[in-house]
Amino acid sequence: MLNTKPQSHPEFKTLSIFQLLKIFWQGRKLRPHEKWNREQIKQHQEKELRKLRDFAYSNSPFYKKFHKGLENSPLHELPVLTKKELMSSWDEIVTDRSLHLKDVENFLNNLKGAELYRDKYYAYATGGTTGVKGIFIYSKKEWFKFFSIAIRSSGWINIPFHFGKKSRMAIVQSTLPWHVAGGIAFIKIPFVNMLALDTTEPLEQIVKKLNDFQPNLLGGFAENIHTLAKEQLAGRLRIKPDTITSTAETLKKEARKAIEEAWGIKPFEEYGATETGVIASECEAHNGQHIYEDLVVVEVVDNDNKIVPPGEYGNKILVTVLWNRTLPIIRYELSDHIKLDTKPCSCGRIFTLIKEIQGREENVIHLPGQAGNRVAIEPDLFFDNMVLLPIDGWQIVQEKEDTISFLILGPHKDFKEADFLKHIVDEIVKHGAKPPSVKVEYIKELKKTKLGKTITIQALKKGEK
Question: Given 3.30.300.30, 3.40.50.720, 1.20.1560.10, 1.10.760.10, which CATH number is that of 364-458?
Fold first, then answer.
């Protein structure tokens, strides 16, 4: 069982100036790739994919069996790797034959900060919000690559960095050392004065610490940044960041609007996962997020793993990580619903744009349909309607196959429960579902996961009724 309590005696890792320069150098080496054309990207992906697959077939017993007879087949013909399959076959997937899942889990259970496993590997776990916990491991070289990828976009998003002058960076997210976001809290970076705040801290404490610290860069989980924007608008938070970044959760329209009203600047969103590192990030044009196609291959697919064309939402994505060798990731399934743009970004970078991220499959509520079928109600239907309500916050829980609870935080005087319920049922029915049973529950605070993320919509898991 992973420890979810703050560390009383944390262990920090201090990057040397040489290590910091190495990370920046690796990040800047990627910059010329942004000027490639589509043919150059395709050739690069094919070359790197061939090297990845050859390495996996030579060093991973799992992939040798998993891809047997398909060694020279195109990527889209290879089988899909789920998190469940990865975890059950972990010892056979890793290419260092001395690594064992049980030992790495024991290490993570006792992790106090930025320690290395066997003085050789960095290990992280996912929070298990999809129902399956994941354990992922990176060599020192891969760890530097992991963070240099995050550095590459610093020029896109106006992050000032000056040797000899400290930037003031505040992050509001998990500080659990076994989670990749939390692991950052235990790393001391030269020329950066960093304040790491745990999202589970009382809001009043977070606001006070930020007021005292006065960051020029503010980052964190999307819902936390949205909450802080509302605190700034209310006058309780008084900071003037130059740059704002968000990760981990989708930054919705209402959050972007609040951030711009609070600080007069547009936020930058970053999309990634513990399994893959950064997959995409937003540039200065704010047209969407550029997929790092020189580092990952992203396939947007339907439930049958067939490619979905740009302009349409997929049911999931399949990600292949071109740079990781310790735990190779080839056609790995992530349940995010994303839509690719049909045109390139106005910034001139040719990398494909993610136009929108609607949420995960686990956030899609399936209801009995009017035609005897099952109807998928996508998260945007709820977001578009809930944002209009005179309330401070909300969450949705599908209690049963035909029952939905709306958890309402801080309703204003003009919130009319009966009118809201009638309207939301009407909207659901328009999408072909039978009228569900709905109810409102009033809450004092939003529920969060052990990582401090806010699960806005909690649908029934497959098989539940």
Answer: 3.30.300.30
